[in-house]
Amino acid sequence: MHPRTSRPAAALLLSAGLLLTACSSGDPSASADPTPLSDPSRVSAAQLVYPLDPYKATDEQRRALEKAQDLLAVDCMKRLGITYRPAARPVPAARSTQRYGLTDEARAARYGYGTPGYVPDSAGPRSDPLTPAERLALSGPPLESKPGGGMKLPPRTLEEQRRTDSGRTVNGKKVPAGGCGREAHLRLYAEKKEPEDLLYVFGMEGEALTRAKASPKVAAAVKAWSACMAEKGYRVTDPMAPHKELGLNPEGEADLGTPKAIAAAKQDVACKKRVRLVGFWYEAEVGFQRELMEEHSETLKQVKTEHEERIRKAAKVNGT
């Protein structure tokens, strides 16, 4: 019911969004207050505030959760006779400035549609720093196939894991089903029962974003943006990723920072500002978030309760 494997961000949003009601068009209902929480004309897209923000982990909380999960994995590996040093985690990415496509003038002028600080990876494949025994201890044995097809999923709760025999040992000690990485996750997120889908709030965000795009005011603003772009010869209809329609490389960085890409990106941002696309979209999204929050208020209460509980667990593990 609750997938645990990593997938591209777009797929994650789609998966979580399936838990919600079907996407609707039109404006938010009268019961959902669309009053903006920020002024898009005064702050960047990365600084906009949304009604669902309090239901998500802050950067500081994410770092605390990651640290706790690493410490729990270290503890489990030690039990198996292994000294484990977790790999350094990347610094949490800044809040996306790409929610409504490219909107930052300075970034567009310098990088076009490229990523700031991008460096081509030419180092080749990296070696696994773990030995086979360490990898087995951390990740557990490979998933097995089910007789009727598909794969047997790893334990969903810590209680289930403790009842499940992985069939493998390291240094004479039984490897937890799913490995120490799985145990660390379950100790923090699912000791006795499965949490609400960890992507539930992200799914609500994704649905609100999509509903907002389909609303009359935003749809009109998108058409106005498209017409503005056409004035300079850019035939595009998608403000989220016009570089793909322009034939720039959509999968990599090679063509996204060229003079041609920079010229298009600058016009893209200027047109969004001219037609107030971000303002219309943001206001609609705020309204739809509040509408969804009303529809799923009980689930959101549970999401918040579980989030606060795991933050307390993380603080205890981290000794803070």
Please describe what this structure looks like:
Residues 1-32 form the signal peptide. It comes from Streptomyces narbonensis. Keywords: Signal. Helix content is 48%, strand content 1%. The chain is mainly α. The chain has one domain.
When the domains are counted, the total is 1
Q: How many H/I helical runs?
A: 12
Spatial sequence of strands, sheet with the most strands: 1-2
Estimate percent helicity. 40-55%
Rg from alpha-carbon coordinates: 23 Å
Task: Give the low-pLDDT segments.
Answer: 1-23
* Main β sheet profile: 2 strands, antiparallel
List the helices and strands in order.
Answer: HHHHHEEHHHHHHH
* Strand residue percentage: under 5%
Keywords: Signal
Organism: Streptomyces narbonensis
Signal peptide: 1-32
Biased composition (Basic and acidic residues): 157-166
Lay out the secondary structure.
Layout: H1 9-17, H2 59-79, H3 105-111, H4 132-139, H5 158-163, E1 169-170, E2 173-174, H6 179-189, H7 200-214, H8 216-230, H9 242-245, H10 259-274, H11 277-295, H12 297-318
Helix pairs in contact: 1-7, 2-6, 2-12, 3-10, 4-6, 7-11, 8-10, 8-11
